[in-house]
Amino acid sequence: MNEQPKSDRPTTRRTFLRNGARIAAMTGLGALAGVVANRSTAEGWVWQIDPQKCLRCGNCATKCVLEQSAVKCVHAFAMCGYCNLCTGYFEPEPNALTTAAENQLCPTGAIQRSFIEDPYYEYKIDEQLCIGCAKCVEGCSRFGNGSLFLQIRHDRCVHCNECAIARTCPGDAFRRVPASQPYLLKTTHAH
Amino acid sequence: MLATLALLTFSSLAEPRFPPPDFSETNHQLPITTTPAARAEWLQYLDVAVLAGCLGVAVWLIHKHRSRRGVFWLSLCSLAYFGFWRKGCICAIGAPQNIILGLCEAGYTVPLTVIAFFALPLIVALFAGRAFCAGVCPHGALQDLLIIKPLKVPAWLEHALGILPFIFLGFGLAFAATGTGFPICRYDPIVPIFRLNGPGLLIALAALTLLLGMFVGRPYCRFLCPYGALLKLAALASKWRVRVTPDVCTQCQLCANACPFGAMREPSPGTIAPKLLTPERRRLGWLVLLVPALIVGGAWLGGRLAVPVSRLNPTVELAERYLAQQKSPVNYGVMTPETLALQRAEHDPEALLKSAADLQQRFRRACLAFGGWVGLVLGVKLVSLSLRTLRTDFEPDRGACFACARCFRSCPQELVRIGQLPASELPSSASIATPVKA
């Protein structure tokens, strides 16, 4: 053990400098950790979209680091009007109010429309197909009740240190929320 | 009907346009909006516990048990846990950015686990060298697995590329400090492999890194990893160094050939002629004087670049685009992100312009610091190149050694120690075994 000072060997200059550097580094590291820890929390933080600030620009579909975005459309069923002519489901001028692909707004056919009772229809999102493009959200918010909106799905999100979509969000709608309450669900209609 | 709908849009109502039905006929139950939970809170403490445990085991394996096989299996476990299960996040490499953002931005809180991930490997490196790189870091583990035929990187290239991690560290910290982003995470060339997913360009970069890693040992760790730069500095002051031979060095050079990372240092040739010493000392003196000049020059250049660099920040960029739009309007099209962002800017231009001005102030400071840092790195590198270290044996470089334990079994003395080689079989042991001990 050449480097270690033994009792019968005097401390060399190099060892002395090294010990000094180590003590200085430990002190600095301790001070830094202390200052940062003073402002930190034990709680984890996750990213989420504020649906009231979302501008439905379509960035969520393309800017996520995942090949299929972790952002999906979710449906607040209690806010939905169950319209026959759903402006989130149908093209602006549909040929007919049927489930035919040419009438649908969704590019992947991710919205399932089912008859409940006259004249009400229910709309559910198939998250396997949804790409988070917000076309339906735009239609529903502009002409309907705004019950369709985008959320980061935490079973898919990989929790990047910095969300790649947040950087490019034109509405500044992304923010960190406590991991214990990781969703910002819509409950009221607002424009 | 569409006309009625269009009319409805102009009446901004707080209540729903189409009242939700009560389903009196069918008594239909509304489905519940699902909210898949984020990762459970206690699991982050598991991450820290696994990190601490792995670091402890790594130190024991390297310094006490001296086992390459042990380090190999430990790194495989870390690769599975931190790499493929945690998908490269949480990781110590990006943690310095969180720490500096926590220092510079009052509104940002750093989770305690991130502080632990930042500090623990550094504390271990201050005592036992880069045990984190050897057995805990998933990035290192993956590259370590892929080494097929490590080529020797020429010294000049090794030294030149060796300053990149320090510059990347400064760049990442300067960016994070201004709240512009975390480039160390964003351009990480290994994480897309852990995720088995990612943007095409990054996947190509990842493939290239791994391909290069087959012929150059751990290219990311040696020539880019910013946390590795910090660990290198910490390991230079480490209390216990990684030792190839258990007792005496016979100078057989086998360990130097065993190291795929070019981290072994040869014994220095004896004393040099006094005639050479004077010009070398003079050169060193000039280089030491050059360091402050390089720092000042770097800071000046950094300060000059602050304004163009600040445009990389989305807020500053939007503010500049808003001002340009006031002078000569550009049509970005309907509903494009650019137009929508400009509409938001028009909503409250004062607040946007004020925050952009604040950010530019922060950029000016960060760019000055980054420029100075680059100057310092270059200067210290030049000085260190003209320093002469006295070495009597073959030794791993304290900073560059990843403590992967490959070289241990290459040492004949080690083989004698573990009983795989009788002492009489030592190569020319009689002639050199004794005098080299310092």
Number of DSSP helical runs of chain B? 21
Question: Strand order across the biggest sheet of chain A?
Answer: 1-6
Structure summary, number of beta strands of chain B: 2
- Count the DSSP helices of chain A: 4
Q: Distance between termini of chain B?
A: 96 Å
- Oligomer state equals heterodimer
Descriptive account of the structure:
The complex is a heterodimer of chains A (191) and B (438). Chain A is an alpha+beta fold and 191 residues long. Chain A has 2 domains: 12-41; 45-178, no CATH class. Helices cover 24% and strands 17% of the residues of chain A. In chain A, a hairpin with a 2-residue loop joins β3 (111-117) and β4. Chain B has helices at residues 2-10, 42-65, 68-85, 95-104, 112-128, 131-136, 138-145, 155-162, 164-177, 183-186, 191-195, 200-213, 219-223, 226-236, 254-258, 274-310, 314-327, 337-347, 349-385, 412-417, 429-432; strands at 264-265, 395-396. Mean pLDDT of chain B is 90; it is low at 1-13 and 429-438. The termini of chain B are far apart. Chain B contains 21 helices and 2 strands. Helices cover 61% and strands 1% of the residues of chain B. By secondary structure, chain B is mostly helical. Classes of the chains: A alpha+beta (191), B mainly alpha (438). Chains A and B meet through α1, β4, α3 and α4 of A and α1, α4, α5, α14 and α18 of B.
Topology (SSEs and partners):
The complex is a heterodimer of chains A (191) and B (438).
Chain A: H1 13-39, E1 45-49, H2 59-63, E2 71-75, E3 111-117, E4 120-125, H3 135-143, E5 148-152, H4 164-168, E6 174-178
Antiparallel strand pairs in A: 1-6, 2-5, 3-4
Chain B: H1 2-10, H2 42-65, H3 68-85, H4 95-104, H5 112-128, H6 131-136, H7 138-145, H8 155-162, H9 164-177, H10 183-186, H11 191-195, H12 200-213, H13 219-223, H14 226-236, H15 254-258, E1 264-265, H16 274-310, H17 314-327, H18 337-347, H19 349-385, E2 395-396, H20 412-417, H21 429-432
Antiparallel strand pairs in B: 1-2
Helix pairs in contact in B: 2-3, 2-5, 3-7, 4-5, 4-9, 5-14, 9-14, 9-19, 16-19, 17-18, 17-19
